[in-house]
Amino acid sequence: MMTGDSESAVVARLRTAGCVFAEDEARLLIVAATGPADLAAMVDRRVAGLPLEHVLGWAEFCGLRIVVGPGVFVPRRRSEFLVRQAVASGTGAAPVVLDLCCGCGAVGLAVATALTCAKLHAADIDPGATTYARRNLAAIGGRVHEGDLYDPLPAGLRGRVDVLVVNAPYVPTSEIGLMPPEARLHEPLVALDGGPDGVAIHRRIAAQAPDWLAAGGRLLIETSDRQATLTGAAMEAAGLSTSVASSDILDATVVIGCKSA
Questions:
Q1: Of 22, 33, 191, 213, whose CA is between 20 and 30 Å from 240?
Q2: pLDDT category, 176, cuts 50, 70, 90?
Q3: pLDDT band at residue 208 using 50, 70 and 90 as cut-offs
Q4: Where in the chain are the domains?
Q5: What own/partner pairs with CB < 8 Å and gap ≥ 24 does 142-148 have?
Q6: For residue range 107-131, what is the model confidence (pLDDT) as tens digits?
């Protein structure tokens, strides 16, 4: 059993390493550890800079426990706003949901869990990400495809997607070096780098979206407030009508494009 003194020692180590929420992290590590040796090893990894979620092996997202690990992008709380917007778009008895740039599958899983009869497909170019996505989506029967954007998708999905949800990288290349070390040193660059202005992948996704969306289907892309105009312009160039939703609480912005019915 962990003593108060031992817990205080863990908190002190985490705080010295710069962990802002040292007390909360210490409690999570203590609960997760199988014994003193395991706890010491976990604390060592966290102090060395590994993201807490990678140390624990999971991340909490939309009330779900998402399996993650070293080298995998950790879902951010702001993306819960993207999920809420996608769920609001998922009308119909059995909507087809496509999660592009799915990473570990957190967004797709949360959307499909809320839309209980949804048929979920997810795709990512990173083999490490798709490995975790398959683990996270197996219980709900989600299909995971590995490849560049739409390339690996089955042809039968074309023109049938009701909700196309995207949390693609949107950090401009020149700003990668300004990100916290936990992200730039421990998460894959392919999950962070959005090109010169951060919208390069958004443009590629938007350009082909009408081919995959069903009539009245919606494309939802997480972006930033300063990039929303560029993301929206990419959707409009593809023939989609657009709107922007934002949350000050979560510091989140989502651009929504709708294909005509």
A1: 191
A2: very high
A3: very high
A4: 4-67, 79-258
A5: 142/105, 142/108, 142/109, 142/112, 144/102, 144/105, 145/121, 147/123
A6: 999 999 999 889 999 999 999 999 9
